[in-house]
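note to self: the first set is below, dont mix up w the second
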Amino acid sequence: MITHRNLLVLTSAVLATVQHVGAQILGCDELGCPVASGTESCTVADKTFRHVGAASVDIPDRNNVSIGLSWVKGVSSKAINGTDSVQYDQSFYLGTPPGFELHPSAGCALFFHDISKNIKFNNSRDAPLPYAEGTCQETTMGPSCVSAVIELAQMAFEKVTPYDSCELLEETFASIIADACVGSLINGGNWSPYTIKNLHKASSKAPISGEQNATSDCWPVLPKNHDLRLIESIKRTGGSDQATEDDQFYGITPILTVLYPTAAGEISLVNYPRAQLTCLKTIKTHAIMSPEGDESRR
């Protein structure tokens, strides 16, 4: 059985893609998930996803060298017995280099879960929804909104703060609406609902081990020796209609990642607050044929 410690996808195409992971979202094509009988899947520990997507978080350290973080999104569904409803599971993993330690810096992640219907990639007319990809700047949010979100996050952590200060991020987005985002992102004049996770607490826990991942058939992160930690999992009940499936499987989830120093006198991973907004969705593999019998490509 393949585990993340020995799963090596070393084709030249993948190696070339690694250099540009921050510019695009990677799906099973690039991540090496198995495709059998026209169906793709990816099992990570105790979760099996129909589709996955991965994108890098290009936050530099105090020496202006990329820390090498990434986000992975996996989505699965199962019918609820005796009903016409379906339970959808959207799970988010933080990818980190081997031996990664955030201390004495700290970090937070804010997941905008319910705004996916408002956000589309600008090139979506050129690529069917399952294959559409890009960066937050290339969505209908636009560069001005993205810059405003990052500025709000960095302003919340201007001073050295305790590890539990993810509440600062929550207070900021509960009370301040960026003018540049109104209309392109906001529903009803607010950011909510969203969830915030403390990355210091999450990164202090051991990543998914080889034993936990013994039944895995893919490890959806690049480079392949990077670790994964489950940070967030959202289960929703909905219908099995195409519109609901499209939103649950291929909707865009903006993730705001903030790293900040916390301890004066200690050498922190970052020397001032750093933030990135990542627009993450799953990507359907190109190896699966469309209903018309033609392979859909970007």
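second set (the one i keep forgetting abt)
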Amino acid sequence: MQLRDRTRELTIAPLWRLGFRPFFLAGSAFALLAIGLWIAHLLGYLPAWQPAGGSLAWHRHEMPFGFGVAIVAGFLLTAVQNWTGRPGLSGRPLAALFGLWLLARLAWLTEVPLSLLLAVQLPFLPLLAGIIGRQLRAAGQRRNYPLVLVLLLMTGCEYLLLYGLALGDETLQRRGALAGLWLLGALVSVIGGRVIPFFTQRGVGRISPYAPQPRLDLLVMLLSLGAALSFALGHNLQPQPWLAPLFLALTLVHGLRLRHWYDDGIWRAPLLWSLHAAYAWLPLATLGLALWHLGLLAQASLGHHALAVGAVAGVILAMLARVSLGHTGRPLQAPRAMGWAFASLQLAALLRVLLVPWAPVSGLWLSGACWMLAFALFLRHYAALFWRPRVDGQPG
């Protein structure tokens, strides 16, 4: 059986052997392109560019549901094979799913009719949730069902945004976009809670694993889903002091997790400090929202961008750098340039949160340039890994 599976895999082009390959490659390239277009448009260099739904709707949708979802798809389609011991999506079915994602990105970039845009965009997340859910169910992997739930909730958020786009209702668009972003934050919390302590233990040579914290993990998940729900319901569009305790509680539990996982040895390994530094943006983002609800911070967007750039994109880049090495059979030693990439993305977050409110033009282009440098460095050193076979000859 294993021999037949191995023979069949050798007939598949390496790019289509596992989900991480096309989605990590295209997702990181799209991150570079999308922010480049957005910053150029904001600074007036693309006055004639008019994507479907308008530039603001495009940015609101494409960062969480274009870039973010691509990386989530690549990660889950690959991880579910390890969790279940069953072959993951590959070959033509994987190429078809990826083609649907790519077609939607092209549709958003152009002035296609809204009906065509919806036709190519609406199916992706339900299909992804169905594929992951079916594999988990077949293997009896109930422990991972919450990840399918988050995918379905993200589907609902995306549909809310698209419904608002169809109606021309900006409030509905904001609710869907922000709820989707904070659901990505919930995924970062869940996945980070699994991989950061494990990677840290292995990376620093710690003998005993970190003590599990199931109650704290559950609390983080419930509070994160509660935060996303509050955006979907529209409660977070204006300061609401009664919501401040929710975000303060999230700040506390994220801080407790970081403290529990910390080891001085992480600073010797870029693949570790990048994960810890990115996760640290989660309590900063939730603290920012708490202060905004209490009237102590003028702009909620500072908290949203701390989450989007610092936490979500930061964890994504750190995970891409490590997971791509492991799944292509290479030693877990990132190229030296990736340390600069991680630092550049951290600087992008700092500039977006601290400089943009005081110097919008300088802050935007500097932050955007740092973001683009980070993903350009990743593509420079990792792109070829995705279309080449594993170096150890193993499947995948």
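remember for set 2: The radius of gyration is 20 Å.
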